[in-house]
Amino acid sequence: MNCVLVSACLAGENVRWHGRKVPYSSCLRKFLKENPDVQLIPVCPEQLGGLPTPRPPVKSRNGRIYETCEDKARRDEVTGDDVTDAFVAGAQATLAIAKHYCCTRAILLKTSPSCARTGITGKLLLENGIEVISVF
Prior knowledge:
By secondary structure, this protein is an alpha/beta fold. It is about 30% helix and about 25% strand. It has a 4-stranded parallel β-sheet with strand order 2-1-6-7, with helices on both faces. The chain has a 3-stranded antiparallel β-sheet with strand order 3-4-5, with helices on one face. Strand 1 (about 1-5), helix 1 and strand 2 form a beta-alpha-beta unit. It starts with a strand and ends with a strand.
């Protein structure tokens, strides 16, 4: 079977930072319709790195990830702890899962500081030859 990693939040799992469930991604539904032979392997790098749900929103600054405030108007301000180590640990755990299932592709959340192609997990997967498809 052809296994593909997927951000668990895109598959409707309640893992987003705010703790609210989001609907199953329409992009993911379309992908599955076009690729019926695929088995999805849901992952949440943040949870795999030890972060809880819900958790504070984060902001990337100079290659590090910091907690920030929930108020969108002030979200550019760094107000909390450096959680980079948890993001790195989650990325490494995600890569280990990808290798275990022989995944060559991953469908990840485009706007995540972890999962985006420019995020910690996205970059690590790309560096290890795994195609990253970014969706909302």
